[in-house]
Amino acid sequence: MHRRIIVPGALGAASLMLAIPASAAAHSPGAPGIGDPYYPAYGNGGYDVSHYDLRLKYQPATDRLEGTATILARTTEDLSRFNLDFLLDVGEVRVNGAKASFTTSGEQELEITPKKPLDKGSPLTVVVRYSGVPSSKQAFGFTSWHRTPDGGIAANEPEAAAWWFPSNDHPLDKATYDVSVQVPDGTQAISNGTLQSTSSRLGWTRWNWRSDQPQATYLATLAVGRFDLTTGTTEGGIPVVNAYSRDLGANDGAARASVERTGEVADWLSEYFGPYPFNALGGYVPNTTTGYALETQTRPFYSPRQFANGSNVSVVVHELAHQWYGDLVSVRGWKDIWINEGFARYAQWLWSEHEGEGTAQELADYTYASHPADDAFWTVKPGDPGPENQFDGAVYDRGALAVQVLRNEIGDDAFFTVLKGWPAKYAHGNASVADFQRYAEEVSGKPLAALFDTWLFQPSKPDAPAEGARSLSKAPAAPVQPRSWRKIAATNDVHAH
Predict the structure, then answer these.
(1) What is the pLDDT of residues 172-186, one digit of tens each?
(2) N or C: which end of the chain has fewer CB within 10 A?
(3) How far apart are CA 476 and CA 48, in angstroms?
(4) CA-based angle 191:294:212, to the nearest 5?
(5) Angle of helix 412-425 versus helix 393-410 axis, rounded to 10
(6) CB 467 within 8 A of CB 371
(7) Are 114 and 123 in contact (CB under 8 A)?
(8) Cα separation of 85 and 108, whole Å?
(9) Could you report the per-residue pLDDT of 257-277, keeping only the tens digit for each?
(10) Is the preceding peptide bond at 158 cis, omega within 30 degrees of 0?
(11) CA diameter of the chain
(12) Residue 473: its pLDDT value, please?
């Protein structure tokens, strides 16, 4: 207990202080960034979002989007104002039912000042009415909105949300979603989660999607166009909805032959990573010219270019592996990208083993031998690559190589326990490379600091383990290229955004 003593001479001053409203002194603006050193302007401080309700209308012919976003949150500090990340034109903002003033700043900041200051721990309902042409907007010199011949697509990493809904745009603030989109009859609107319903009236069809498990903002997606939808279920009973643009041309067959195996791949991955973590599954392939794929939660985005040389189930394996490593457990900061990409690439190595096209060890040996010591490949540090190298090929390949070295060090029993236990330990949350190291040490009972430092943080080629250590042989003969190598290499640009 703390007892406050006021001496008589101080009573006048104390009375004067008490006359000043506490809100005038205690409340301050929320930070315009969540604190990620890679992307200082991404996300915001002062509140935590629990749910986004997005009610949208989109006209493919003009790329015009109109929307009302209702954001449910709770303040984490005393706020005089707060920011959302957003690019479209705002017509009105209400905070807890009352009109709020707003302005814009920086590249993507929507600054909102409520009529009354907000106390820490208060429930917060923000309604934003907006409209605009997403393809006309840029931030930091680029756009994350992809115009297609029959509509538009929101899919990118580390950002895409600001082009279609206001948000706290960083993986640290996950939320659930309801996305309702009105489009002209004959056009489809694809999003995450389960399709709750569709209804048509006066030439327009409304598509209602729900994601009822926490989801990072960059993993939310919207795709509007003319799609062919297929449905099914996995052996485990998860509903699958896939969508293919009706204008994929020569890539159509290969895309379907790959993405239609989504349920099979998810069931197979669950043997390594634990039960599939969400209640919906699928993928979509729009008619876009971009070349990458993305693990948008429950429904990955694939570029047609991924299937230009034929079917490629390996890229489906990569994006579905992210449902555990990246979506269920997300990065604490963007420097922790190795936990996403190293393990998604390693899943491709395991699939190669499953298909009899080269073991994970053979792929590791070939990767190691393919890059001489003076190759720039080794200067990229997967454990903290920097924003300029966040999606460099070395984060994927050197990242997967580090996973195999870890496997060899701790043995298969501990390794596969880690592989399955990690998503369960941090389910629906965020974690760092340091967290992963501690968890692997806890499970294996081995000190791993030197291994992690050597393979993830040193900008040089590590020495190969001693001869006979079942890893990265020093034998002079170059390893034979595994049969799956070219297929896996074809996915090297999956995140070359």
Answers:
(1) 999 999 999 999 999
(2) N
(3) 56
(4) 40
(5) 120
(6) no
(7) no
(8) 5
(9) 999 999 999 999 999 999 999
(10) yes
(11) 90
(12) 56
Residues of the chain with pLDDT under 70: 1-25, 466-471, 473-477, 493-497
The one-letter code for the residue type at 47 is Y
* 358, 483 contact by CB (below 8 A): yes
- Distances in Å between the Cα of 450 and the Cα atoms of 15, 343, 389, 418, 454 are 61, 20, 23, 18, 6
Cα of 361 vs its chain's centroid, Å: 28
- Tokens representing 129? 């009415």
Residue type, 156: N
Q: Cα separation of 491 and 493, whole Å?
A: 5
Residue 19 contacts by C-beta under 8 Å, 6 or more apart in sequence? Answer: none
How much is the pTM? 0.93
List the structure tokens of 153.
């697509």
CA dist 476 and 369 (Å) reads 10
Question: How many Å apart are CA 207 and CA 196, to the nearest integer?
Answer: 8
Whether the CB-CB separation of 465 and 451 falls below 8 Å is answered with no
Tokens of 466: 């001693």
Residue 103 phi, psi dihedral angles, 5° rounding: -150, 175
- C-alpha angle 212/57/161, rounded to 5°? 55
Residue 180 forms beta bridges with which residues? 55, 208
B/e letters for 475-486, b = 16+ CB within 10 Å, e = fewer, are: eeeebeebebbe
Q: How far apart are CA 375 and CA 92, in angstroms?
A: 54
Contact 120, 81 (CB under 8 A): no
